[in-house]
C-alpha cells in the first residue's frame, strides 16, 4: 500500500514539471512592419507599417497604418483596418505562438493577411515577434485575384 501511495505522489510531483500553456494577448502590442511577396500589377510588392494594441479578447486596436508602397489599389493611409491576434505562451519555454489576421479596406478593395505568430515572452512583452502567412487582395479588376505570402516583423 505504501508503494502505491509513493508512486501516486511521485506521479503528481512529476506532472507539475511539464509545460503548460496560458493566453498571452497584450504582450504583442507595438509597431510591426509587413513585407508582401507575390501578386501582380498594382497589388504587388506591397509593404506597410502598423501600430496596434492587442485587446484581451484578441482583437486589435489599430492606431497607425502607413502603406510604404504606392499604387492604385490602396492609398498610403486612410483606409479602414481591423484584425486579431490570438496568442498562447508555453510557460516553461516562454515561446509564444498563435494566429493572426489583418484586413485593410480602402477604395473598394480589401487586403487580407492570415498567418501564424511566433516569438518569446520577456516579462510582459513579446520579443522577436514575427508573423508568416498568406495574403489576398480583392475588389477592382486591377486588384482582384492577387495573392502571395508575407512576413511581418515586430519593430518595437
Structure commentary:
The chain is mostly beta strands and 156 residues long. It has one domain: Beta Barrel (Lipocalin), CATH 2.40.128. The chain is built from one helix and nine strands; from the N terminus they run H-E-E-E-E-E-E-E-E-E. It has a nine-stranded antiparallel sheet, with no helix packed on it. Strand 8 (125-138) and strand 9 form a beta hairpin.
In short:
This protein is mainly β and about 160 residues long. The chain has one domain: Lipocalin, CATH 2.40.128.
List its traits.
single chain, mainly beta, Lipocalin, 9-stranded antiparallel sheet, 9 strands, 9% helix, elongated, disordered N terminus
Secondary structure layout plus pairing:
Elements: H1 2-15, E1 21-23, E2 30-38, E3 47-54, E4 60-67, E5 80-90, E6 95-106, E7 109-122, E8 125-138, E9 146-154
Antiparallel strand pairs: 1-5, 2-3, 2-9, 3-4, 5-6, 6-7, 7-8, 8-9
Rg from C-alpha positions? 20 Å
Largest sheet: 9 strands, antiparallel
Anisotropy-based shape: elongated
CATH topology: Lipocalin
Total DSSP helices = 1
Strands, total number: 9
Query: What amount of the residues lies in strands?
Result: over 45%
- The assigned CATH architecture is Beta Barrel
Q: What is the helix/strand order?
A: HEEEEEEEEE
| Order of adjacent strands in the largest pleated sheet | 1-5-6-7-8-9-2-3-4
CATH class: Mainly Beta
Question: What helical percentage do the residues reach?
Answer: under 10%
Amino acid at each position: 500500500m505504501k508503494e502505491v501511495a509513493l508512486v501516486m505522489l511521485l506521479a503528481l510531483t512529476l506532472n507539475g514539471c511539464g509545460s503548460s500553456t496560458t493566453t498571452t494577448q497584450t504582450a504583442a502590442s507595438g509597431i510591426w512592419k509587413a513585407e508582401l511577396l507575390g501578386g501582380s500589377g498594382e497589388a504587388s510588392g506591397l509593404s506597410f507599417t502598423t501600430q496596434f494594441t492587442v485587446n484581451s479578447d484578441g482583437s486589435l486596436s489599430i492606431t497607425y497604418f502607413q502603406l510604404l508602397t504606392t499604387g492604385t489599389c490602396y492609398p498610403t493611409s486612410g483606409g479602414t483596418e481591423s484584425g486579431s491576434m490570438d496568442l498562447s505562451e508555453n510557460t516553461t519555454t516562454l515561446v509564444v505562438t498563435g494566429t493572426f489576421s489583418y484586413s485593410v479596406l480602402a477604395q473598394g478593395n480589401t487586403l487580407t493577411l492570415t498567418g501564424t505568430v511566433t516569438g518569446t515572452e520577456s516579462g510582459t512583452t513579446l520579443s522577436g515577434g514575427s508573423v508568416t502567412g498568406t495574403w489576398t487582395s480583392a475588389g477592382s479588376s486591377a486588384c482582384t485575384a492577387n495573392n502571395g505570402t508575407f512576413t511581418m516583423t515586430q519593430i518595437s
